[in-house]
Design goal:
By secondary structure, this protein is an alpha+beta fold.
């Protein structure tokens, strides 16, 4: 009897601990995963019920789940692979409409071939399903990974390939894509019309420099030819009537043109014969969404630069 009571108490204690642990995990993880894999949203298929018919009896067969994210498999932006029993007849078609009722589900498709025995599968290797299911989640963007599984599956879809699927993906600024098969990983952000690689362009494209009032009247400013979006050298040849204030600003490309998506941190140092130390550095931004741009401002509040003098400033940003 005592053994039974002890076992019951132990079970209750373990259940209580589990409940507390489960509550703590739920309270601290409002989203089911820190990152999502596009290939996880590819693991669905719907068997054909009748020849050339893409509306099916039953609702649950059109629902799937990936990384604890439930989703309806059809959309008017998600291409569908009609995997025919005769592989030569397989094709990818984007629905013009979808059906999702209590008794039936499916998509309105206009394929080029007849399909008598077939399965419907993702025509984007899960990418468009992932974007559709994950966009608009909270205040910060959701990250979708493109791993070797995704690229392998995407490149096997008839009539297309991975890079074409990526170029055709439809989304918005609330979803970022990350290709983890490159080193470093390549990030893609929605430009308003397509997903565009950001870090490749922002690393290679130098910001645009502009002189401020502190540089005086008629100054000459430029970035060295070797400057990039990450590091470079700003050249400032001051004019006459220099004063305190902004010496120069650097403005990066907008997100839509491959620029960085955040203010970041920049370190600026004076170099060359005319070393200059009494300046301050600040990063800010302008615009939002695809028009977002990082701005670096170098300001002198103590002593004006010397007129008609060459200054060099190196910048390193991340």
């Amino acid at each position: 009897m005592r053994t039974s009571i002890r076992s019951s108490i132990a079970a209750l204690i373990l259940a209580a601990i589990g409940a507390v642990a489960g509550f703590a995990q739920t309270a601290n993880t409002p989203f089911s995963a820190p990152e999502y894999y596009a290939s996880s949203f590819n693991l669905w298929s719907v068997n054909g019920q009748s020849p050339n018919t893409y509306i099916f009896q039953g609702r649950s067969i059109c629902n799937s789940n990936a990384q604890n994210v439930p989703f309806f498999v059809f959309s008017t932006t998600g291409p569908v692979l009609i995997a025919d029993a005769t592989s030569a007849n397989s094709e990818v078609v984007t629905p013009s409409a979808i059906v999702n009722t209590a008794g039936s589900c499916g998509a309105t498709l206009a394929p080029s071939n007849n399909h008598y025995t077939f399965q419907l599968k993702s025509g984007s290797a899960g990418l468009q399903e992932a974007i559709n299911s994950l966009q608009g989640q909270g205040a910060w963007p959701t990250l979708i990974d493109l791993d070797k599984n995704w690229w392998t599956i995407a490149n096997q879809i008839p009539g297309t390939y991975g890079t074409a699927i990526l170029a055709a993906a439809k989304g918005n600024m609330t979803v970022l894509l990350k290709d983890i098969t490159t080193a470093p990983a390549t990030f893609y952000v929605w430009s308003g019309t397509a997903y565009t690689a950001t870090n490749a362009l922002s690393k290679n494209t130098a910001p645009t420099i502009a002189a401020g009032a502190s540089a005086g009247s008629g100054p000459t400013v430029s970035n060295s030819g070797a400057s990039t979006g990450i590091t470079g050298i700003a050249s400032v040849l001051t004019g006459t009537a220099t004063t305190t204030g902004t010496i120069f600003t650097e403005t990066w490309p907008a997100v839509s043109a491959g620029g960085p998506q955040y203010d970041g941190t920049c370190v600026v140092k004076s170099s060359g014969a005319n070393s200059y130390t009494t300046f301050t550095v600040a990063t800010s931004d302008t615009g939002s969404g695809t028009t977002f741009q990082r701005i670096l401002t170098v300001t002198e509040a103590t002593a004006a630069p010397t007129a008609s003098t060459q200054y060099y400033f190196t910048y390193t940003c991340k």
